[in-house]
């Protein structure tokens, strides 16, 4: 699969494509670096890289004018939209990463309590590959002036805390689950 080609097919302006591609590349680099720190798990590095490159493909159909996307859907729907795109072209594992990469994942309870415009279903990372892509994504924004600037772990915690302390707890559990990772994330 050529993930960059797939992205290019879905983004309709040079600006939106450039932003999503650069964001996705840095997320993919970090996700593969994180996976490399866990050789005992025998992870699928190619899948992790492809999934990280495609995790935001659904942004192309959202209303996100700051990144030159002028679709009809709410930005929060980009995970579900991306999953639909990738499912349709026969990539269910990649679709699953799209669906579950928002923050540390969204539960049905989160969606209902916050009245989010999403299907009432759990969309949380389950596999190590899903967790690593979601984790790497937390460290990078899509802001044009800071696409390659990695956030600190403290900044990630602060961002997650806005959605409840339980999100920070999940993040910290991920770091505890893979004790090899905090050193990489600090560097």
Topology, pairings included?
Blueprint: H1 3-10, H2 14-36, H3 45-54, E1 63-64, E2 69-70, H4 78-88, H5 92-100, H6 108-113, H7 128-138, H8 153-161, H9 165-177, H10 181-186
Antiparallel strand pairs: 1-2
Helix pairs in contact: 1-3, 2-3, 2-7, 3-5, 3-7, 4-5, 8-9
Please report the number of helical segments: 10
Query: What is the rounded distance between the termini?
Result: 31 Å
Strand order of the biggest β-sheet: 1-2
* Percentage of residues in DSSP E strands: under 5%
Helix content, binned percent: 55-70%
Secondary-structure element string: HHHEEHHHHHHH
- Give the uncertain stretches in residue-range form: none
CA-atom Rg in angstroms: 15 Å
What's the mean pLDDT score? Answer: 95
Give the class from helix and strand content and strand pairing: mainly alpha
Q: Could you tell me the number of beta strands?
A: 2
Shape annotation: globular
Largest sheet: 2 strands, antiparallel
Can you characterise this structure?
- The protein has 187 residues and is mostly helical.
- The chain contains 10 helices and 2 strands; from the N terminus they run αααββααααααα.
- It has helices at residues 3-10, 14-36, 45-54, 78-88, 92-100, 108-113, 128-138, 153-161, 165-177, 181-186, and strands at residues 63-64, 69-70.
- The chain has a two-stranded antiparallel ribbon with strand order 1-2.
- Helix 3 packs across helix 5 (92-100).
- The longest helix has 23 residues, at 14-36.
- The chain is globular.
- The N and C termini lie far apart (31 Å).
- The model has no long low-confidence stretch (mean pLDDT 95).
């Amino acid at each position: 699969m050529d993930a960059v080609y797939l992205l290019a097919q879905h983004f309709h302006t040079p600006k939106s494509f450039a932003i999503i591609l650069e964001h996705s590349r840095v997320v993919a680099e970090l996700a593969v670096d994180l996976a490399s720190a866990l050789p005992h798990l025998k992870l699928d590095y190619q899948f992790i890289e492809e999934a990280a490159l495609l995790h935001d493909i659904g942004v192309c159909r959202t209303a996100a004018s700051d990144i030159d996307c002028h679709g009809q859907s709410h930005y929060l729907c980009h995970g579900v939209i991306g999953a639909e795109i990738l499912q349709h072209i026969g990539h269910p594992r990649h679709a699953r990463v799209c669906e579950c990469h928002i923050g540390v994942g969204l539960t049905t309870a989160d969606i209902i309590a916050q009245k989010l415009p999403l299907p009432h279903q759990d969309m949380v990372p389950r596999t190590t590959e899903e967790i690593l892509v979601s984790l790497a994504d937390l460290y990078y924004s899509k802001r044009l002036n800071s696409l390659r600037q990695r956030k600190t772990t403290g900044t990630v915690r602060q961002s997650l805390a806005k959605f409840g302390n339980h999100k920070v707890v999940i993040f910290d559990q991920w770091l505890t689950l893979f004790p090899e990772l905090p050193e990489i994330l600090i560097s």
